[in-house]
Amino acid sequence: MNEKITVLSSNIAPSKNFSCDSKLEKVKHADLILRHFQYLLYSAYLKNEDAISGLIYAWQERGKSTVVLSVKHTGLLIEDDMTAYGLCRRLKKLHEKNKLKQYHHILIPDLEKVTSRSRTVKNELRSFLQTLMWDGVQRVDTYNIHLELSSRLKIAVIACVTPDVFSPKSAFRRLGFLSRLIPFSFDYDDNTIDEILRFIGTLEEDKLRTQTIKILKKKKAEITIPQHYLELLEEKSRTLAKTIDDFCPYKQNLNEKRLIGSRAKRLLTCYLKSICLARNEKTTFDENNWREFEIMFRYFNFNMKKLP
Questions:
Q1: How far is CA 58 from CA 67, 110, 130, 188, 296, in A?
Q2: b or e along 67-79 (b: 16 or more beta carbons within 10 Å of the residue's beta carbon)?
Q3: Angle 124-116-52 (CA atoms, 0-180°, nearest 5)?
Q4: CATH number for the domain including 33?
Q5: pTM of this prediction?
Q6: Which residues, 6+ apart, have CB-to-CB distance to 95 below 8 Å?
Q7: Which of 16, 41, 138, 219 has a CB 3.0–4.6 Å from the CB of 152, allowing a cystine?
Q8: Could you tell me if residue 97 is inside a domain?
Q9: Average pLDDT, integer, range 177-191
Q10: Parallel, antiparallel, or unpaired: how do β-strands 146-153 and 182-185 relate?
């Protein structure tokens, strides 16, 4: 079955499936964020790969949720209930209606909502998401959560977060959670902020259009990555693993390596394939795809580097 994505019109990636007329061209930050979001979604259409999870990390008022919520996709389950109980309850209802299989990503537009919850609730949610997006779940049975499915369920998670969610003692600032997804952080320079503020001032007069875009995939695609690029990816995987390791607290000494990069390698390999599929629908990864990956990789951290 052909999938459809509806996306807020923007000047984004040079891809058949994501070329749009520009109504957001004045706000160029949307370009890079949408491209990253696009690659995460396309990972669900890769043969022999699980869909990959990610964080979109920036300060408040940076348009994270606005950009990702501009995409309407039948495989995207938007979740606002920041409890494991609420999420399990929703998954159970979808399972009973035989609608659960259509979803490959859960989108959490604002993970900051969880900061008002108790530590127990936060730990439960982190643990459930961590298992759901990596090993999958089939049966959950705790004092207040009961979920039993006919087969193991894996769904990737994309969450928009602010630094407030990741205080040093945060339930979510843990290796087990963060090593299972790709962090993408950003900020703006002063000129971009001025452009955004001017753009917001014109919204009432100039309504944004939406555009429906098809992902023409009737079956999952098999992408080949030449050995040369897999070798280059080794260093990137170690870099991402170290970034996550250094970000998480309770490290006994600075030279200690808690992560070796195996999860990062798995995630980034899938991300390379996603880029190839989304940009040109070829079956072999090439140099143009690698250049795009290097652009995106600059933001795979928690440094909130300013977008170009």
A1: 13, 11, 21, 10, 15
A2: bbebbebebbbeb
A3: 50
A4: 3.40.50
A5: 0.84
A6: 149, 150
A7: 138
A8: yes
A9: 91
A10: unpaired
